[in-house]
Fold this sequence. Notes:
The structure holds two protein chains of two kinds. In chain A, 74% of the residues lie in helices and 0% in strands. By secondary structure, chain A is mainly alpha-helical. In chain A, α4 (83-119) packs antiparallel against α5, α4 (83-119) runs antiparallel to α9 and α5 crosses α7. The longest helix of chain A is centred in the middle third of the chain and has 37 residues, at 83-119. Helix content of chain B is 77%, strand content 0%.
Amino acid sequence: MTDIAVTPRSDGRIAALLRHSRYIVGENPVTGFAFALFVLIVLAAMFGPHIVPYDPLASDTAQALKPPNAHHWFGTDQLGRDVFSRVIVATRLDFFIAVASVVLVFLMGGLAGVAAGFFGGWTDRIVGRVADTIMAFPLFVLAMGIVAALGNTVQNIIIATAIVNFPLYARIARAEANIRREAGFVEAARLSGNADWRILVFQILPNVFPILVVQMSLTMGYAILNAAGLSFIGLGVRPPTPEWGIMVAEGATFMVSGEWWNAFFPGAALMVAVFCFNLLGDGLRDMVDPRRRT
Amino acid sequence: MLTLIIKRAAMAIPSLIGVVIVTFLLTRALPGDPAVYFAGPAATPQAIEEVRVKLGLDKPLIAQFGHYVVDLAHGNLGTSLTTGQPVVTELRTRLPASAELTLLGLLVSIVIAVPLGILAATRPNSLVDHACRVVATLGVSLPVFFTGLILVYVFYYQLGWAPAPLGRLDVFFTAPPQVTGFYLIDSLIARDPDTFMAALKQLILPALTLGIFSLAPIARMTRASMLAVLSSDFVRTARASGLSAYTVIITYAFRNAMLPVITTLGMVFSFLLGANVLVEKVFAWPGIGSYAVEALLASDFAPVQGFVLTMAVMYVALNLVIDLLYGLIDPRVRLEA
Lengths: 294, 337
């Protein structure tokens, strides 16, 4: 593994990174598989509404509750809507919620944590206290409370998911910033007359960034589960909007009477997405920090 | 030991204060006027004004907070709009249902995950080890409500082994006289094996769902910490002294490997209490989670607030218990205190 670290930089960082990525994928085909899956999810999120065979909202009562067949690959729901089209179209919303909440918590938690680790003192104490208080709640329960308080919208689901992940990001960013506080390059920057905020933005942040990016892909899976769980209990997304959590909730009533496809396919899509994000996160971690490989 | 208990209990106080502040702030974060919210959708302006004075919303924020804390100290969590019942009463009657389910779920996952982790650690790269890894990865990827529905489909609809997923007890049975509120224990106290079996049948699927969900972190941690302990010197010495494999693994290694596993339980409880809400919805379980969900959809905020507070207080208490357990198992922690 040491030969990766000493890869010559002569042909540029991007080429080296590409080669390193290829090495990782070659070494661990599971990461390659996860990446392929990820590309598929992104494509479905981007082009989903244009490639599906049916309108996800159009009902056709003559075709209601048909099991999977040649015309409707995933069957039809109680209103005769095509489950396959709905599952594919839902990718965009679920993916968007997960990405938006992860980016939001990256900004909130990452910046607060870096500031706490770098400045110490009161900043550190306040950020630490906020993180501890959030950690004192069971996370999903807190998310429920936040959505209830802020209002029942998709936007608030994103905010709630970001808030419950805050302690994780703040702690990692704090630890990483703290160990670099006295590092040589920071001292050098300070001696050359840089202000604190300049050191924070140009010296500390770029170093903490890759670690937080890995954390983002690791929390994507949790974010999507959390959001789907909230919409499963009826928060945020409203019918007839296609979204995996709410589709499972709508299909749940038919599970006891044997119409399994209504809840199964959106649930399976959710599972595959979470599985993909978790594998990808592990792979990315290997790429950024080979020492933590398990 | 007593000083340890007092010290740890004191450490939980800042968390509790934080929890009370957050639940208070959640009510104030309501978009629009909290008085309108609490008075309900059909209230007249006069009624809203009455609610405002009654809740003390016309006073400054600090005074409102004092009001809230005094109410809490008197065990008053407000009144539900939809049922007209005090929130405390409803939470108290429903809490045993949730607690029974959560604890049984935890028991299921420990009973499966700990032996699995130990087996995986004692036979690295064997079939058991790979199975452990697959289970750990799948476990964190499965949405808990989805697992529950699949189990219902397979065991209720296809095989017919489980009863309909509709609550704690089949309609043909009456609840055993209440002692603990746990149907399994109460029916045993009442010497009523039929009710016990009926309650158990209703519990198996939801408990299994929760168990599968929380299995992954426990199995993973057991495996990792057993691997670390098994390669340590004292285990080698024990082996060299000719002790049986069972004594070495269970008495020597496992007791030491348990510590990180117990620490993980804190995180597992956070997941379990959250997942509980979803599982209760799938199985129409009359616990506090489904109570909160119903209230949430009806925009009835007092029960939600009470529920969030109850869950958080329970979680803080559970973490306290975990800390104390830690001291009980590891004498070194006791010495530090």
